[in-house]
Amino acid sequence: MNRIALYHLETLLWIARLGTFAAAAERLNTTQPTISARVRELEGQLGYALFRREGRRMALTVRGRQLVRDCEPLWAALERALAAGNLSGATGVVRIGAGEIAAATCLPGFVADVETALPGVTLDISIELTARLVQDLLGATADLVFLAGPVAAPGIQTAGIGTVSLCWMASPATAARMAAQGITGAPASPAPIWSLPRHSPLHQVMIQALGDATTTLSAPDIRTCNNVRTLIDIVAAGRGVALLPEIMTREAVASGRLTPVWQVAGRGVEFQAAIRAEESDPIVLELFRRASALRIDAPS
Amino acid sequence: MNRIALYHLETLLWIARLGTFAAAAERLNTTQPTISARVRELEGQLGYALFRREGRRMALTVRGRQLVRDCEPLWAALERALAAGNLSGATGVVRIGAGEIAAATCLPGFVADVETALPGVTLDISIELTARLVQDLLGATADLVFLAGPVAAPGIQTAGIGTVSLCWMASPATAARMAAQGITGAPASPAPIWSLPRHSPLHQVMIQALGDATTTLSAPDIRTCNNVRTLIDIVAAGRGVALLPEIMTREAVASGRLTPVWQVAGRGVEFQAAIRAEESDPIVLELFRRASALRIDAPS
DNA sequence: GTAAATCATAGATGCTGCCTATCAATACTC
DNA sequence: GAGTATTGATAGGCAGCATCTATGATTTAC
């Protein structure tokens, strides 16, 4: 049954429209015996008769008419789908990967840019941890990723798109308690530190910042969660402090759920767009070019 | 491009689902080189690349992924459409023809019967004059027709389904005027007669009825209209009298728009269902069987 | 009755799709 | 790091199929 070709259906539709095999043959630039043969093949594949002799012409059977009716819209849609790839304009499904912070900072602007400039391009967005993003990119599960921290894996081509500033955050209650205990430089017990998982670049930055300021403190109490939004909720609930991207906490700070407890000295975390080094698809390259032009620190 | 067969698309979809050519080959009960060849053919027909080497596997290109996404639902719909004809149940599009009176008397019950008993059957209904119905039936433009009057054309198989009683009708004002003039047997001027066109069986019956009762009258004034509903409206507006099927005027009589002026002597007009004599399609035959069982005079 | 129109059939031909048997490249494993 | 498994590509051979031209059979029209 799957040996039916598109021209079999096209033939059926044209016979139905024009009424005779000969007319369909002319329309399809072929001969009448070819049309007969195609109908015979189609009927053989389907296992039932499509036409019935009616005088000197052929009339559609009940099932044949049903098939014509069913196939008419499907045929048109299929023709369009198959022809879509030949359009000169950029068309396709591009899989975008992004870390959670990158998703919050880069994606809104990027998606808006792509939708206006390249309306034929459909984005499949997947939010993952940085380590997984690199894996997806190399494994061809993603075409373009936004990730945190300088990544220097072989076979990856990157472009910096700016930095996000980080800030130690806590709930107002926790901050007051820490101030009462005289902790002004860096957090310590009894306020535990919450962070992204240990393999995350943000975690490394946090350890770095911690080392700069707390050489004299004992090993800090670090707990992890792989989701920044959840991290914010935890800290806002007074369960500890966390080094959070400023851009994702603005709302919570404005509403009084969070308050900054200590400004970090460093320049924050660098974000970058990345594609495979050997990427050749013009659409992905164009999207990478546009992604590289993003500046996530500019609008602040 | 139309040389693409369904198995090409099926192959593409299974590769996309299973990830490798080899897995798709096993799923499709064929060999891996065959899958490679099919992909090559498909890409050749489409004119653009669907896959790109990625390590030792193949990854979909942006366009390829787009095609997979577009084809997935179309493929399923097409498979369903093609398989529909092989279902054991009756499925198909049957073209029904009917005269206007038959449409009013037979079709409601017939359609209800078919929709409950044969839900897979779709009816295409066309209302035409009797002469045209016979022509449609013989020309294979209709599969089953309901028509008035005993039709004895060669190549047609009929079954009587009852008679409709006829009645001379007029508006109450016209009826009163006729009564005042002492016309009790049959209508005459100044109330003109309205009728269906001259080739219609109902017109013949009307002439017959007229002849029975008005041998002494001069040639009556006969006007025609090819639409019974319009005929009713004309008569109700006081423009004349007409020999109308009782079943179609019940409502107008009940509402006082029409009133019977003289009961006709004959048994009315016989209606019948008809198919081509050499009809072989089991669905049409089944529908004819069901149509023959109708009794349009029974429910009265 | 003749002519035109419609579809079917037959034979020839070129192409296409499939299979078996290999090769090449890559990833995994000990 | 060597061996092995996996993945897809290639080559050769073969069968089948779609197409064409030429012709036949049947029906409709004039």
From TrEMBL, chains A, B:
Keyword Membrane recorded: no
Keyword Transcription: yes
Alphabetical UniProt keywords: DNA-binding, Transcription, Transcription regulation
Ranges of residues in domain HTH lysR-type: 1-61
Pfam families given in the database record: HTH_1, LysR_substrate
Family statement drawn from the similarity comment of this UniProt entry: Belongs to the LysR transcriptional regulatory family.
Name of the protein described by the UniProt record: LysR family transcriptional regulator
